[in-house]
Every structure is written in structure tokens, then in C-alpha cells.
Design brief:
The protein contains no helices and 28 strands. By secondary structure, it is mostly beta strands. The strands form seven sheets. It has a four-stranded antiparallel sheet, with no helix packed on it. Strand 12 and strand 13 form a beta hairpin.
Amino acid sequence: MALDQVATIPLPPHAKDGGFDHAAVDETRGRLYVAHTANNSVDIIDVETLRYVRSITGLPAVAGALVSPTDGLVFTSNRGENTVGMFGPDSDDVTKIPVGVRPNGLAYDSDRRVLLAANVGQPGVAGSFTVSIVDVTARALVGEIPVPGRTPWAVFDPVSRVFYVNIMDPPCVVVIDAAARRLVRTVPSPVAGPHGLDLDMPRRRLFCACDGGQLLAISAETGEVEKTAPLSGVPDVVFFNARLNHVYVAVGDPGVIDVIDAVALHLVATVKTGPGAHTIGFDGARNTVYAFLPESHSAVVYRAA
């Protein structure tokens, strides 16, 4: 089996309608952070003991969490108040920085200490589709770059030192040079609704999961779509496992993880999770995948094989 279930971790009950959103793992310190949107909080899991630790609260409509690989600094996108949050691995003290309209996807250049917040904006509000550039050292917004549409997710490429940001409509991936504060390239998508995004560093490819039900392998160098694979439905979060050359794609309806061979781009397995489980987390150091189930407010843990 590509993913073997090994544990279920109870998480706090939902305080209101909703569920979970993007998650990130601090592999060095052994902590997983998941946006618990229904509770305006980030839940913390100990990935060694597979237990819930505590929650960071006061994060309105939190859409995602991201961890700096160097110092364990945690970032959150707080759609309900148009801010990003920052807190240390051993602190509950959150610093908030105003950004654009409804921040969602986050990506981080740890060398330059630059955070990008991809703002989904507000349809009908002119100029609300942007990405915000935050200087983490100064704890300040230093740039706002217009983009052509709604922005589900973003990743940073440490080789070319640019950010890739998915745009739902018009369907494309835009390339952002944060140092120059500008959009430098647009890569059209042949499939509607680019959503989840991750980077295959060894092969210099982007894995882009589209609402049109396809996973695209896109050359980071040329923008060419090299291969495609069908998915089980409308996808959300994508993670690439470089050790196994697998791509994990969360599909909330019907509630599965599609496991795709990253080289041939064919389906390896479809693993049932639960209705509405559209978000996952990945721990590359421990080779584990986490699926977040809104119906039971829990995290299911899988060993990857």
C-alpha cells in the first residue's frame, strides 16, 4: 500500500462551521501546524508521539500555516483580518502584519527572510488580486504586486530565487521576483483552475493540481507542460515526496488522497480519507502524511511506502 494508516489524532472540536486548511511540518523540531479555520486557530501536533499539543488562538479565518526550515518561525495567513501572523516555535506570542485582501497561500525565502502572501482578493473589488511581500526581519509589508486573478497557493524556488503563484482564472502560474518587486513571467495552464502547487527540485518541475481534475508537471525552466495525470476530483493541497518519487494530492470530494508516480505521472493508489478532507500535511523526515478530517475533527496519520 502506498499509504498505510498508523494512527488517528483527536483535535479540538469545531467552534463553528468549517474545518481545516493548509498545514506545515517543522521536521527538525518535530511539530506539525495545521490551520483550524473553524476555530480561528492553529493546532499543534507532536509528530514523534503523534499527539495534539496545544492551539494558537486569535487567528481569524486562518487559511494556512508555514514553517521556516532554518529557525522554526511559524507564519499564518489570517483571511478574516487581512494579516499574516508570526510566532516562534516555543512561543504563543503572535506578531501580526497587515497585508492584502484575504491572504491565503504562503511561501518563504529563508535566506533573504522574505515572506510572500498570496491574497485571494475579493471579486468585484478592483485591485484586490495581489501578492504581498513582507520583510520578516523588519516585520513590515514592503511590497504589493498586482496579479491577474485569485491566488490559491505559492511556493519558493531556492535555485532561481523566485516565487511561483497559482492563478485560478485566467488559469496560469505567475513568477514573482520579490527582490525586484515585480511579476516577471506568466505560464499559461491548459487546464482550468490551478490550485495546489509543489516543486520537484531534482527535476526542476512544478506539480500543479487543477480544479479541472488534472495534475500537471510543468518545467520550471521553460514553462512547458511535460506530462499530465487525471485526478479523482477537484484537488486542493499537493505535496511531493522526493524520497519515494510520489506526489500526494488531496481531493475533498469524495475524500481521498491520490498518490501519483512523480516520474511517469501515473496513478499509484487512491487512499480513502473522509468527506471534506481537502487538506493534508507531509513530514519528509519521517515519511508520513497527515489527512485532516473535518467530520471527526481529527488527523489521520499514514506511513508512506
